[in-house]
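The records we work with from here on pair a chain with its fold. Taken together, the tokens spell out the fold as the letters spell out the chain. The record below shows the convention in full.
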Amino acid sequence: MRKVQYFLKKIIRQWAALFLLPSTTFAYSSSDDTLTTVLTNAVDYAQSGPARALCVLAIAGAGYLWIGKGAMPKSYAIAIMCGAGFIFGAGFIGSKVLGLI
């Protein structure tokens, strides 16, 4: 049993010495990483011409159903309008308020 313990301690010391040696490392930083590209493309797509037309139709439809017919709850109509504001305000929020762009 003592020989096994001695052998294990010897191996642990050798590996510990190996792990304590300095090694070269670097931090990867790039403005063109995948997440940034995906988010930028998503914002560009959400703020494109066809998306704006669909958003205008959705807001007009929600307003008509809420005010004109009374068939939509007020909370749904407000959620649609706030969601559209956040989607189309994402570029402004990112550039002016957060200073990201």
